[in-house]
Write the structure tokens for this entry.
Amino acid sequence: MPDVYSDAIGRLSDDIRLLAEEIRLRAGQFLSIAHQGGEEELFTHLRPVTAHDLTLTMENATKGSLHSAIESIQRGFVTIEGGHRLAICGRALLKDGVLSHVRDISSVCIRIAREKKGVARSVLPKLIEGGRIQGTLILSPPGVGKTTLLRDIIRMLSCGEAVAPHRVSVADERGELAGCLGGIPQMDVGPRTDVWSGMPKSEAAVMMLRGCSPQVLALDEITAPQDAAAAQMSFGCGAAVLATAHARCVEDLRRRPLYRSLPGIFTRAAVISLENGKRKYGVSNFEGG
């Protein structure tokens, strides 16, 4: 971000910075901080965000080439070092019905990636049967912590915490789970974990199944038929599949044809909900179909 904002955020108290989950910049409005309790404008003493501020932020995030990052933007956002992600809104330029460029950026949402080691300790034992992890879908509304929980489950399985060590392959299409930089994960995903970053999940799954002999394949967000095909392929090869999905509960998921097409692959559902601003974790049996 421009110095006027990054310097101000750097002066916030540790308590506020630790609670912050998103930084929101909207043209003509004051910068705000979002957390589980809502969204607050903490910087009304500064000038409102300008269109130039938004363009500069995205140029910095994409190392001076917003156009080269358009493929990532087509999937919803740009992931930067550390697994943080930036989503944008603006005026789209289409070519043959497909986004080819973005002009007049109107807002930028910076999602702050954080590790929370140990968040899976109460969940993982309920996902184990016969000493092996079971196929599991992690469910919650957007922004409640699916990726954070999945990352910690991967770490615990890979390290052998609460279960025998597992070989884990991660199809990290958006770079959020491992946050690899120079080939080295910036997030702790354990010592027995292999990661493909930036590749479509379906293609990454094929390569890792062929070459890495995973006991577990982890995918963040099954949202399209090709993601479901990757899960089916992994299950058919004997790997347990861990994935996330946007849903408030198992019943929400059962209404969607995409998930009804996955019988047998997932036998557990880990559901994250918010109660009085605090996350609550529950596990139930789940059978797609």
